[in-house]
Design goal:
The chain contains eleven helices and two strands. It is globular and about 70 Å long. It has two domains: 35 residues; 246 residues, no CATH class. It is mainly α. A two-stranded antiparallel ribbon has the order 1-2. The C terminus is likely disordered.
């Protein structure tokens, strides 16, 4: 077998293009670049850029779309079942007489339903990261979809702890401004300034924690260790990660406008809307994985000997 000069993967004899990145087979030969161990989408030392993330994200999304859609369908089915159960509960116990006790009972029943929906959503997200890693590193899935989902449920405690820690930090950022605005009417301007400062802190924190879920799922770390690892990966590259997040946000804004327009079409539009949500939903997870993988691999660029201990990151 020969190796692709673009991605370093092996090309089957007689193939016209690389089965992983699609580069023409003419680029392969006896003198081609040998594959880098664990290179995946981003060989060690590649430049960390918006174009690399977006391009690789769309290619990986197309490659892994089938299994990711199945995970999305499982998640939507469970959520739909929970909503139906809530409606049945309300109709069976209260009928048309919806007074305050009925509302309280429905809210009490909704709490476990919401917790279950969040749990399934997080598990499906974790399972998606595992499948995406398979396609990125091996060109195909090595795990079964069911196994990925079950492994995703095993990651739930750590993911929930990380989410709660992140939410606590967000509350701490926003609380001073909200407290001043609510308690001191004469200091609304100062409260607004504090709130804006808190929002800037939330944005900074969001970017520093952007690779948090992939780290938890793919590096098998605890919540605190994962937050430290995310902080380490994004260190010195905050603006670049912000640029990637903004680019992804703009892409989804454009997609959202298109989906919203389609959704106005009666019946068929609603079916198409749900279908597009299921198909496009995994794209954000794929982009998140690509950003994490690029951060991890670009962190392993050769550096002067004095800095090796601080910057060298091997593949997880």
């Amino acid at each position: 077998m020969n190796n692709c000069q673009k991605c370093g993967k092996e090309i089957d004899a007689g193939a016209d293009v690389c089965g992983f990145c699609g580069a023409p087979a003419e680029n392969a030969g006896a003198t081609a670049v040998q594959p880098v161990t664990g290179a995946g989408l981003f060989p060690d030392g590649i430049a960390f850029s918006v174009n690399a993330i977006i391009d690789s994200g769309f290619r990986l999304w197309i490659k892994a779309l089938g299994p990711l859609i199945i995970l999305q369908l499982i998640m939507f089915s469970v959520m739909a079942a929970l909503v139906i159960l809530m409606i049945i509960f309300a109709a069976a116990f209260f009928g048309p007489d919806f007074g305050l006790p009925a509302v309280k009972s429905i809210v009490a029943a909704a709490v476990p339903a919401v917790i279950a929906a969040v749990a399934v959503s997080l598990a499906a997200t974790a399972g998606s990261y595992m499948l995406i890693e398979d396609y990125a590193e091996h060109g195909d899935k090595k795990r079964e979809i069911k196994d990925s989902l079950m492994d995703g449920f095993r990651k739930l405690p750590v993911m929930l702890c990380a989410v709660m820690a992140y939410v606590a930090c967000v509350i701490i950022c926003a609380a001073p401004g909200l407290a001043v605005m609510a308690g001191m009417r004469e200091m609304l301007a100062a409260g607004a300034l504090l709130l804006l400062t808190g929002m800037a802190g939330m944005l900074y924190l969001f970017i520093r924690m952007y690779p948090l879920f992939p780290v938890i799922v793919l590096e098998n770390r605890g919540a605190v260790e994962s937050m430290k690892r995310s902080w380490e990966l994004t260190g010195g590259r905050w603006w670049k990660v912000l640029g990637i997040v903004l680019a992804i946000t703009l892409i989804f804004f454009g997609i959202g406008i298109g989906i919203g327009i389609v959704g106005f079409i009666p019946v068929l539009g609603q079916i198409a809307y749900i279908g597009m949500q299921i198909i496009l939903g995994p794209l954000n997870t794929v982009f998140s994985y690509c950003c994490y993988d690029a951060l991890k691999k670009s962190a392993s660029r050769p550096v002067p000997p004095a800095q090796d201990a601080c910057h060298a990151d091997g593949p997880s």
